[in-house]
Design brief:
Elements (H helix, E strand, L loop, with lengths): L2 H25 L9 E2 L2 E3 L3 H5 L8 H4 L5 E3 L3 E2 L6 E3 L6 E4 L3 E6 L2 E5 L4 E3 L5 E3 L23 E3 L4 E4 L2 E5 L2 E3 L7 E4 L2 E3 L7 E2 L3 E4 L1 E3 L5 H34 L6
Amino acid sequence: MIYGLYLSATGVMTNSYRQDVIANNLANSETAGFKRDLALFQERRTAAQERGLGPGPTVPGLERLGGGALVSPTQVDASQGELEPTGNPLDVGIMGSGYFAVQDQNQTRLTRAGKFMVDRTGKLVLANGKGQPVLDVKGKPIQLSLSASTEIGTDGTITQDGKPVARLGVFNVPDRLKLVKQGGGLLAYSDPNQLTASSATLQSKFVERSNVDPATELANLMESQRQLEANANMIRYQDQTLGRLVNDVGKIG
């Protein structure tokens, strides 16, 4: 193996992956409740270190270079997004930690996208085109009257014509690292039975914007592009050097 080619190749692959993550963040910068993904990396151990070999059969100088970069599992930045006023009484933003719960194909999913509507059957659902039912504090779909005026309080209490009829469920998870994105702003948690009630404050007539800063993401994208090009150039230079070694130096004598 040509060690320099291997190290440069890992640099190309990790930065290509980082670009994909950043591009997805930028594509969702206007998606309500979206949380940006973080592309993480770690130093890869050398082959000798992975096999537990001693220093004897390896080259000490190359061992100090390490085994290149290795992609780590992507994590989600759960920081608070800015609340944006909408004027819609069924839009709700979460201030603090917690997630709304919805029913998606008989599974409980979580979301920070508080854009709701009432469907023709009177159920409170997500206003995302798919209409997943929103769940109350007991994990049950919320049924509302189609003709009554609706308000949502800071604790999630839903009132219609001044009378409380339901309460939005807002839940915390024991370990955010176990949240898995399902698309459409939905998150899956490994064990929904571990969800606990959240004390977050709700703001009616607002939605939480994504926590993506386009300027920061674009700067990261350009940095990643430069690193990818640098590693690609190193591969080309090493290939040219090997070509000269084989075609020119090999002819001497």
